[in-house]
Design goal:
The complex is a heterodimer of chains A (495) and B (153). With 495 residues, chain A is an all-alpha fold. Chain A has 21 helices and 2 strands. Chain B has 153 residues and is mainly α. Chain B has 2 domains: 57 residues; 67 residues, no CATH class. In chain B, strand 1 and strand 2 form a beta hairpin. The model of chain B has no long low-confidence stretch (mean pLDDT 91). The chains are: A mainly alpha (495), B mainly alpha (153).
Chain lengths: 495, 153
């Protein structure tokens, strides 16, 4: 009964005319971000935070969440029409989506992606409504050792699943943790690693870092070959044919389940659910050899998984305060800017915000479907903007976004510096997501570890003697050691 | 093509050593437990050790990362990247003294030129709309504080 009351309260908040408007604007802006090459959801959401400054916290968070899941759909359009994913989670959609576009079937590809995204997102939101309250109540039992171990699991997952080299991913995670040391000591409140530079007393803002690594870095990379070739195709027949529906139904169902459940695991990122959904679809298909030549299941499944993941990943963010991806880290930053701290206490202190946001996810998915099916042609037109105007325009918003966070040119400098670093790391194929997540989770992690050690009088065994903490640390060890053991096994096999 | 990866590893080792040295300025322990120097101390040591391990892995050719990308873009690409960087650094330097509108007007005027666009009228309209127009929307419409500069515009 308690949950039902909260759901009703959530819908009452989300259906307020202004909140509906914010969700709608967020969906439009998010799709725009997803469509524009060189601007992924993380940087895009970060850039648009200033737009929400004058809004009340609920309105601001609803709009930013809509930007987030809108961008997840928007990335599909470029994957299908240009063979360039608007964001990383749409990489796999290029395989069959682009082939479908080349065959003149871009309409059904984008149509099934919109419908799949709607179904996946809606199911995930319903599931989020069911699981979030019990999980938040369970998380209230966590003390500092459990929080520390949970953060270790989150960072281990994002590290273990990033890039081709585990060592490089670990180094990037530690780099993020080192950056998080800059500013005030989270336990004693004394300045550290500030080198006498006043703006560093507040630490390195992770939002300018995200804008730099994922926005400026991506734009610099795009500058190497900025001209996109958009496939000219009829976009009138958006609804798939009957036989396409038949094969897509199962794909959408499987994509929904995979996306939602992987979204529950903090740190897994948006790419893995889409790749796994595609792999599963290929496995269960009667004609796996046709994957990559333009089969509609190859678009339906990963696109569904993508949006189911986006909404499912809200569970660890809202209930535990752990963002699972850089974009969710930005969303967490937006919560903090609006004076809210995601986590189990938010359910107790501001149920209107939590349940209003969850209900708005459901309504946002309806809006995305209504918005995207008729407007696909308009979004495709955006891809024809000349890069000489497109990229300066995006950079303008990067500068505006970075400056307005603290009215500080220093933040713009941080963004530019991390833009250069982001470009270099991308060229060298070093993963960036672990750095961002470590930067935001670092102070929480240090506070939890030091408080745990204060509780135990400096004895580290406190982390292993408390059952939940011990289980979490074992899980983290499995995540990190599995690739190493596999590598050793392969080497032993070769020898 | 191992060099860029090796250099990056060395840079991380150097950063870890620097962080370790600075961490000695903060107490490792205090009355209540671990002090502000505790976390950075261990973090620096682990970062340095792992960066060194990665360096040796790459040097011995046992890491999947080495030799995977074309690092230097073609000349036109380099010029475009430089144009973006010069425009960004320039706006960084001018934002406080000249304010948002003039700085971004110059940014949006010169960057398209630097990227090879020559349609002056379109560039001019783009620069005015992107600087003065966006300022109006955000400063007055959305109440986002933006720098005014010494001229107050």
């Amino acid at each position: 009964m308690e949950a039902l009351q909260y759901w009703i309260q959530g819908f009452a908040v989300a259906t307020l005319p202004m909140n509906l408007l914010y969700a709608f604007i967020g969906c439009v802006l998010g799709t725009l971000i997803g469509v524009l090459p060189g601007l992924g959801p993380a940087a895009g959401t970060a850039i648009l935070i200033p737009v929400t400054f004058s809004l009340d916290p609920i309105g601001g968070i609803i709009m930013l969440a809509a930007i987030y899941y809108g961008a997840m759909y928007g990335g599909t359009i470029t994957s299908v029409l240009v063979n360039v994913p608007g964001e990383a989670a749409s990489v796999i959609t290029c395989l069959d989506g682009y082939q479908m576009a080349k065959q003149g079937r871009a309409g059904p590809a984008l149509g099934i992606a919109a419908i799949g995204s709607f179904i996946g997102g809606t199911f995930a939101t319903l599931a989020l409504m069911v699981v979030s309250l019990p999980l938040a109540n369970f998380a209230l039992r966590f003390g500092p050792p459990e929080v520390f171990s949970l953060l270790v699991v989150g960072l281990s997952l994002v590290t273990g699943l990033s890039g081709r080299s585990l060592l490089a991913a670990l180094v990037m995670t530690l780099f993020g943790l080192m950056l998080s040391m800059i500013g005030m000591d989270p336990v004693r409140g004394a300045p550290r690693f500030t080198f006498g530079i006043p703006p560093l007393y507040d630490g390195i803002g992770f939002i300018p870092v995200v804008m730099g690594l994922f926005g400026i870095g991506e734009i610099l990379l795009s500058m190497e070959a900025p001209v996109l070739e958009v496939i000219k195709t009829k976009l009138t027949d958006l609804l798939p044919k009957r036989e396409e529906w038949k094969v897509s139904t199962g794909a959408i169902g499987r994509g929904t389940i995979i996306g939602f459940f992987l979204g529950l695991i903090p740190g897994i990122g948006a790419i893995i659910p889409t790749f796994l959904a595609y792999a599963v679809e290929k496995k269960v298909s009667k004609h796996p050899e046709k994957f990559g030549t333009g089969v509609i299941e190859g678009v339906a499944s990963p696109e569904t998984a993508n949006n189911a993941y986006a909404n499912g990943a809200m569970v660890p963010l809202l209930t535990l305060g752990i963002p699972g991806s850089p974009t969710l880290a930005v969303l967490m930053g937006a919560f903090i800017i609006h004076g809210l701290t995601p986590g189990p206490f938010l359910f107790k202190e501001r149920p209107d915000v939590v349940w209003g946001l969850i209900a708005s996810l459901y309504l946002g998915n309806v809006m995305l479907l209504i918005l995207n099916l008729p407007l696909v042609g308009l979004w495709a037109k955006l891809l024809e903007i000349r890069y000489q105007y497109l990229y300066p325009g995006i950079l303008l918003f990067c500068i505006l976004g970075a400056y307005s966070l603290n009215q500080s040119v220093f933040d713009v400098g941080v963004m530019v510096a991390f833009g250069v670093l982001g470009y270099i790391f991308r060229k060298l194929d070093w993963p960036l997501a672990p750095t961002v997540l470590a930067l935001i989770l670092g102070p929480m992690m240090e506070r939890a570890l030091r408080t745990s050690l204060e509780m135990s009088g400096g004895d580290l065994s406190i982390l292993f003697t408390r059952p939940i903490s011990a289980v979490l640390l074992i899980a983290a060890a499995i995540v990190l050691l599995t690739p190493a053991v596999r590598l050793l096994g392969r080497r032993a096999g070769k020898d | 093509m191992k060099k860029p990866w090796q250099i990056t590893c060395i840079a991380f080792v150097a950063l870890a050593i620097f962080w370790l040295v600075v961490s000695f300025e903060y107490p490792y322990k205090d009355k209540l437990g671990p002090g502000p120097g505790f976390f950075p101390f261990w973090l620096s040591i682990i970062t340095g050790a792992l960066s060194l391990a990665l360096f040796f892995q790459i040097t011995r050719g046992k890491n999947a990362m080495e030799g995977s990308a074309t690092l230097i873009p073609e000349r036109q690409g380099v010029l475009r990247i430089l144009a973006v960087l010069v425009a960004l650094v320039g706006s960084l330097a001018l934002l406080d003294p000249l304010g948002f509108r003039i700085t971004l007007f110059l940014f949006l005027l010169f960057l398209p030129l630097g990227l090879g666009e020559r349609n002056w009228w379109v560039i001019l309209i783009f620069a005015i709309a992107g600087s003065f127009g966006i300022f109006h929307l955000f400063y007055y419409g959305l109440k986002v504080p933006l720098p005014m500069g010494v001229f107050g515009i």
